[in-house]
Write a structure and sequence with these properties.
This protein is α+β, with helices and mostly antiparallel strands and about 375 residues long. It has helices spanning about 5-15, 45-55, 65-85, 90-110, 155, 170-180, 200-210, and strands at about 25, 60-65, 115, 120-125, 130-135, 160, 215-220, 225-230, 250-255, 260-265, 270-285, 295-300, 305-310, 315-325, 330-335, 340-345.
C-alpha cells in the first residue's frame, strides 16, 4: 500500500471479496511533503495515508523500512546511469529489485498467498503451456504492463493485480469514494518518487553527485561546435527545449557522450531509426528463441505499440516496420503479441546497431 488511490482500492476490493488482507507499506524515501503533488509514493506522508486507509478497511497494517535497499538498487543506479549518459527508468528498477524481490519475500514470510499491488495489468495462466502470462490492463489507458515486463514465472505466480480489470482511473476514484477512502481524490504522485526539488532530477543529481557536471561542448553530427553546456546529465535523447541554441530549424539532442563531455544535436529527422538494440533481453510468456518474432513494441511508457520484428540471440534488437523517434539508451523496450507481454529489455547505445534488414515474413501472432 503506497498511500495512493490505486493500491488502496486494490486492498478494499480484496477485503470486500472476503480475503484476509494485510497492508504492507514500504518506507523507501524520507521526504515528507505537505503538497501531494510532490509527495512521492512511500514517503512519510504517503505512509500516513496508507495507515488511514487500513484503519477504514479494518485490516492490519505494517510499515517496512526499505530505505537502504531502495538507495542501493534504485537511487544509486539512477545516478550512475545519468553519469554514463543514459536515461534510466527508476520505476522499473524499484519493481525489479524492491517490490517484487524484497517485498515479495516479506509477503511469503508472513504466510500470505499473493502479493497484491495497485498496478494496472493482468496475470493469466496458459492452460496449454502452464506458463503465466503478463497481460495489458483491460482499460488500456492506464496499462502498466510496460514497467512489469521483467517479472519471472515465480513472481507472476505469487502476484495479483485486481486493478487490471478496472476500466479507467475515473472508475478507480469512484470505487474509492464508495469505500469511504480519504485518498479518493488524491493526485497521482510524480513519476520519480524521490525527486522533490524544484529543479527536478537535474537539481537532485547536482546535490547527489556534483562532480558529473561540468562545462562541455554542444556539437553537430560532424563535430562542429555550436555552443556550450553545463553538464551532459542535464540532457536526454530527443530533448528540444533548454538546449540554448537557435537556428533555422529546431535542434534536438541526438546523442550524449559523457567521456568527451559532449552533447550532439541535430534535426528531428536525425532522431529516427528502425533498429533498436537491447541489453538484458528478458523473455516473459514464452521460452527464449533466436527465431525472429513478429510483435508490437514500444520504447516509452506512453507510446502506442508499433509493429516490429524481435530478433533474439546474443545481440538482440527490435526492428520496427516504420521509423520510430528518440530511442533512448537506458529506457525500456517491451514487445507484445496481442495483449501479452512477450519480452523486454533495456535500450543500449545505437552506435554499431544492426544494419537495416528486410522485414522477415510475418508470423501469425497468437491473440
Amino acid at each position: 500500500m503506497s498511500g495512493g488511490v490505486d493500491s488502496s482500492v486494490a486492498a478494499a476490493v480484496l477485503k470486500k471479496r472476503g480475503f484476509e488482507v494485510i497492508g504492507l507499506t514500504m518506507q523507501i524515501w524520507q521526504e515528507s511533503q505537505t503538497d501531494p503533488r510532490h509527495a512521492g509514493c512511500c514517503s512519510l506522508g504517503a505512509v500516513e495515508d496508507a495507515r488511514r486507509v487500513a484503519r477504514v478497511l479494518d485490516i492490519p497494517h505494517y510499515v517496512m523500512n526499505f530505505k537502504e535497499e531502495f538507495r542501493q538498487s534504485v537511487i544509486e543506479n539512477f545516478i550512475d546511469e545519468y553519469e554514463r549518459g543514459r536515461t534510466p527508468n527508476p520505476c522499473v528498477q524499484c519493481n525489479k529489485h524492491v517490490k517484487f524481490e524484497i517485498l515479495l519475500q516479506k509477503m511469503q514470510e508472513l504466510g500470505c498467498e499473493r502479493l497484491v499491488t495497485g498496478h494496472y495489468a493482468r496475470i493469466r495462466r496458459d492452460a496449454k503451456s502452464g506458463r503465466y502470462r503478463l497481460m495489458r490492463a483491460r482499460g488500456g489507458g492506464k496499462d502498466q504492463s510496460y514497467v512489469l515486463y521483467m517479472l519471472d514465472q515465480s513472481q507472476l505466480a505469487a502476484s495479483y493485480f485486481p486493478m487490471g480489470e478496472i476500466a479507467d482511473k475515473a472508475e478507480t476514484r469512484e470505487l474509492a469514494r464508495s469505500f469511504g477512502l480519504s485518498v479518493a481524490d488524491k493526485p497521482d504522485s510524480q513519476e520519480i518518487c524521490f525527486v522533490s526539488e524544484a529543479g527536478g532530477y537535474q537539481e537532485f543529481l547536482r546535490k547527489a553527485r556534483p562532480e558529473i557536471f561540468g562545462k562541455g561542448e554542444i556539437v553537430d553530427r560532424d563535430g562542429k561546435t555550436l555552443g556550450e553546456h553545463e553538464g551532459v546529465a542535464d540532457f536526454t535523447i530527443g530533448q528540444r527545449r533548454g538546449i540554448g541554441l537557435s537556428g533555422k530549424k529546431p535542434l534536438y539532442v541526438l546523442e550524449l557522450k559523457p567521456r568527451e563531455n559532449q552533447v550532439v544535436v541535430g534535426e528531428v529527422e536525425d532522431l529516427e531509426t528502425k533498429n533498436v538494440p537491447l541489453d538484458g533481453l528478458f523473455w516473459s510468456a514464452i521460452q527464449p528463441t533466436d527465431e525472429p518474432l513478429r510483435v508490437e513494441a514500444k520504447i516509452r511508457y506512453n507510446m502506442a505499440p508499433q509493429r516490429a520484428t524481435l530478433h533474439g540471440g546474443d545481440q538482440p534488437y527490435l526492428e520496427f516496420d516504420l521509423p520510430i523517434r528518440a530511442a533512448t539508451p537506458g529506457q525500456i523496450a517491451v514487445a507484445y503479441r496481442g495483449q501479452t507481454v512477450i519480452a523486454g529489455g533495456t535500450i543500449r547505445s545505437l552506435d554499431g546497431r544492426p544494419s537495416q534488414r528486410s522485414i522477415v515474413p510475418e508470423l501469425i501472432a497468437s491473440r
